[in-house]
What we know:
This protein is an alpha+beta fold. It contains 19 helices and 15 strands. It has three domains: about 10-185, NADH Oxidase (3-Layer(aba) Sandwich), CATH 3.40.109; about 200-335, no CATH class; about 345-440, Nonspecific Lipid-transfer Protein, Chain A (2-Layer Sandwich), CATH 3.30.1050.10. A five-stranded mixed beta sheet has the order 13-12-11-14-15. A hairpin with a 4-residue loop joins strand 11 (about 365-375) and strand 12. The chain is globular, with a radius of gyration of 25 Å. Keywords: Iron, Iron-sulfur, Metal-binding.
Amino acid sequence: MSKFDEHPTVKHWRKQEASEAKVIPSTQIDAQWLRHLCLEAGADDVGFVEIDRPEIADQRQDILAAFPPTKTLISFVCRMNRENVRSPARSVANLEFHSTGDEVNHIARQIVAELERHGIRGFNPAMGFPMEMNKFPGKVWSVSHKPVAVAAGLGQMGIHRLVIHPKFGNFILLGTILIDVKVTTYHQSIDYNPCLECKLCVSACPVGAISADGHFNFSACYTHNYREFMGGFTDWVETIVESKDRHEYGQQVNAAESASVWQSLSYGANYKAAYCMAVCPAGEDVIAPFLTRRKEFIQEVVKPLQAKEETIYVVPNSDAEAYVTRRFPHKQVKQVRNSLIPTSIRGFLGGMPSTFQREHSKGLNAIYHFTFIGAESCKATVIIRHQTLEIQDGHLGTANLAITADSKTWLKFLAKEQNLVWAIVRRQIRFQGQLRLLLAFGKCFPQ
């Protein structure tokens, strides 16, 4: 350090340190003071969670990777204007999402800045985007806001997979701040679920992503609602690249779709639906119209979204495609590419629950043994029975079909960059057992 001794900044700091009384950094802060700080900054509610809380154990590694000195997580919510979110004019709903999202990020930054003035280190990841897109299609967010909010007592997850605040309902956006000190008092999860299980979200979802029994089809929701985010944007770019001229492009992407992509690029990516949030009546501040005039509520809020004529984006031969055709024949179905293509074997195995199409698995009862060799070596068992999916490390039970594959070749096969027959001829992919089960497996995970 001696080479820095004569630097003006170093000299100033050492002079200041020598003249000031030694202050021992605080290792714990008062919960009431911190809560007041967050509410004054604009949060509508706030809760605190210790880093070692069991409910967020599966998030701990990612949290510490983002901010290693984390001791406490501050979770807070900001309310949205309900009628905007409910509007069939999705431009209004999206403006509300983006405006409140900006507010969440601003509040988080303001809190961290104030904490820094008190000698407390803080870290505020984005409410939504931007994220770590170099990890796509894997986990691109630094902190999972929903499980932290639940642990902080700010609500419980409804069957639509949104956090429902006991007072504000699901018309909230979430923020999380990581700090390097403990808090005197931590919050616990609330002891009931505000979700009414009224199934209005089930009836309003245009792609059938939410089932009455609580099953959630992630890929159906992702493909349509997030059409202009991430994978859908990539699909649009690939359509441009593959089109010979503007006429061929126009046959695949109409003028309204092109304008919508431009709008998303210019003003923030737009959600195509989020109808599950729009129709949810849960929450003390929200429930009155549903209880006092239920028929009018359904007529005013639910029916317009169900009746809306719009384009619904689906992966070919998916459960969503069959659902839209049957349930909403007045909505136009458009087939698009599956953008949830794994780039690693870990991603393939970990992502299967998100792309599993249980309606297409009817009648299938089979055990699959996967053995991957080469760049990524591992063994796994995939069990599909009674329209459920189970994935285990290693080989368990007796396989109906055993698949041995070079990991890179398998990933290229999934991305349709490798011909399966050619891979079999070159023995880069080998099978043992009932080959008809490979076709049945593919139907459960349409590309």
